[in-house]
Specification:
about 130 residues, mainly alpha, 6 helices, about 65% helix, about 0% strand, YlbD_coat, Cytosolic protein
Length: about 130
């Protein structure tokens, strides 16, 4: 059963509401109804001054601040790393992976052993000459 897609204007309205989260709060408080908001949006358009009071401008600024803060934390973490310790951990992981691969080979659980046991013929189909 195919899912029914909403009308393009409804999709645009949903995007508009995401950009204006205070509208959701107004509807939840009971001050407005979705039908009323939709009709106003349809008649007035997205750019009308009425909608400025419902736009959450702080969220955009906060997201930019969070991005900048995250990048500064990453740079400081990289700056504070001891490369000898990082190298030591990488070599430990490498030896651990090698040990695990050796165990798989020993017990016949590797990918290559499964291919070898399938038969000496490399072709999936056998053709005979008449």
């Amino acid at each position: 059963m195919a899912s029914k897609k909403p009308h393009p204007s409804v999709q645009k309205f949903k995007e508009f509401v995401k950009e204006h989260p205070k509208l959701v709060q107004e509807v939840r408080k009971g001050n407005k109804e979705w039908q009323e908001v939709f009709e106003d949006w349809y008649l007035l358009g997205e750019k009308d001054v009425v909608w400025k009071q419902y736009k959450d401008e702080n969220s955009e600024e906060q997201s930019e601040e969070k991005k900048a803060d995250f990048m500064s934390q990453m740079f400081s973490a990289v700056k504070n790393m001891d490369m000898n310790t990082v190298n030591h951990h990488i070599s430990n992981m490498s030896s651990t992976i090698s040990t695990i691969q050796g165990l798989f080979d020993q017990f016949g659980l590797s990918k290559s052993s499964g291919q070898k046991s399938s038969g000496s013929n490399q072709q999936p189909f056998s053709f005979r000459k008449d």
